[in-house]
Amino acid sequence: MTSQTDSPRDSADRVLIFDTTMRDGEQSPGATMTLEEKLQIAVLLDEMGVDIIEAGFPIASDGDFEAVTEISKVLQNAVTCGLARASKGDIERAWSALQHARKPRIHTFIGTSPLHREHQLSMSKAQVLDKIRETVTFARSLCDNVQWSPMDATRTEEDYLVETVALAVECGATTINIPDTVGYTAPRESAQLISMLHQKVPGLKNCIVATHCHNDLGMATANALAAVEAGARQIECTINGLGERAGNTALEEVVMAMKVRRDILPYRTDIDTTKIMKASRLVSTVSGFSVQYNKAIVGKNAFAHESGIHQDGMLKNAETFEIMRPEDVGLTESNLVMGKHSGRAAFKDKLAQLGYDIGDNAFQETFVRFKALADSKKEVYDDDIIALIEDTQTSTVHDRMQLVDLSMICGTRGPATATLVMEIDGVEHRHETTGNGPVDATFNAVKALVPHTARLKLYQVHAVTDGTDAQAEVSVRLEEDGKIVSGHAANADTLVASGRAYINALNKLMVRREKTLPRQLK
Ligand code: KIV
Ligand code: ZN
């Protein structure tokens, strides 16, 4: 295994993109992802040109350990990063998960602010310094690429922050990350903090300085870019800004801001921006967090022009109202595709055009489902195909529970009756039950076959395209003992999509039950 430090300075204007969708993003209640889903995201991020992928927090659960291990095996270019608290046990566990990585990085952190020292750690300033010395030195004895973070840095006393950063650098940290853990800072202050550290810690010139912003006051993107202007050369971010509370800095926003405003933000990333929409859709599907319609860059309306004046301007010259081209972020018009007579070759071609290269098995399954959809729906659009692919990727053969068959009697005359057949651990089970409407009956049938105490927190239906024959995309969120999971499915039949989304959430609940470590991170 080669262990190498990614070069911070292939040129002064290069900003490294550190994606933490699968670590900080997954900490968002309900965003639990399965291993297969994480692998899909990791491969896409790697292809996109993300420099460092924080794949998980190996001590948190066997699932996180496995995710870091398996992701590290598939990454071709990106550094694989594993998170560890300031303890030798955590660091050893992270290092052992990184054994197959071409480029491993250990990321270790400790709270430095008075609130964190006193209330979370019950440690004095001197004790925290001792821990930093012990753990950064230990991490560096294992791996030559070590990132250290003073958690809640933006609420830490300035002099003390300088002392901790200088110590971490002296002990061998190669990246120093400055987190705004609670989304408290503002752009000018974010920049001042980075400049101040550069001035007062001379050793920082040999390190990469990173910025890690949370979005509680809606300033994460602005704060991250201000930090870059002050000398930070790594931005920590997530796709769609996923993350707990108000989320993290959105990858697509900082990357596109630096691309579109190169005149005033003269920095460069290696991101292939045409893969942004695909990454956004994938993360939204697997996390069950829909993207708000007016979200910058990736929202459904980000490039839509409704008003007469805008439409008129756009027809004359797109630049009148558009500062970037939809195709720069991988957005193509949702074209009418093909019908039930389209063959495999044409379908394969379409997938390639849409940027999907799925394996043979997934191709066969998606093709069969496309044919069934084309039979039931006159017009099949690109968005339908994307929903099909993502749905096929969401439910995998490794899921313990699958929906096999669902039929329904419902209408004006009384309670709806659902008859459901499910495969559970390879064995088929059937149940018939009633409910207050067809969705309720379907969910009751699932619950009878898979008894559980999880509570339904969200049931949401979206139409993929226009028209009454549109596919329904359903999201379901469940909570059990404070653990939240989301399930997702798409189908031309809203009830089938609902049942499958519910079962998808239950499959994730099995994964989530493994995560035993109290998650106190932000
Ligand atoms: O927000 C935060 O402080 C974190 C650290 C673990 C870097 O996510
Ligand atoms: Zn964070």
Description:
With 522 residues, the protein is of the alpha/beta class. The chain folds into four domains: 16-287, Aldolase class I (TIM Barrel, Alpha-Beta Barrel); 303-331, no CATH class; 332-394; 401-513, Double Stranded RNA Binding Domain, CATH 3.30.160.270. Helix content is 39%, strand content 19%. It has 16 helices and 14 strands. The protein has an eight-stranded parallel barrel with strand order 1-2-3-4-5-6-7-8, surrounded by seven helices. α3 (88-97) runs parallel beside α5 and α15 packs parallel to α16 (494-513). The radius of gyration is 24 Å and the shape is globular. It starts with 15 loop residues before the first strand and ends in a 9-residue tail after the last helix. The model is unreliable at 1-9 and 516-522 (pLDDT under 50). 3-methyl-2-oxobutanoic acid (KIV) binds next to β5 and β6.
Brief write-up:
With 522 residues, the chain is an alpha/beta fold. The protein has helices at residues 35-48, 62-74, 88-97, 114-121, 125-142, 158-170, 187-200, 220-229, 251-260, 276-287, 308-316, 344-353, 360-376, 382-394, 438-449, 494-513, and strands at 16-19, 52-56, 79-85, 104-111, 146-151, 175-180, 208-213, 234-237, 401-409, 416-424, 427-435, 455-463, 472-480, 483-491.
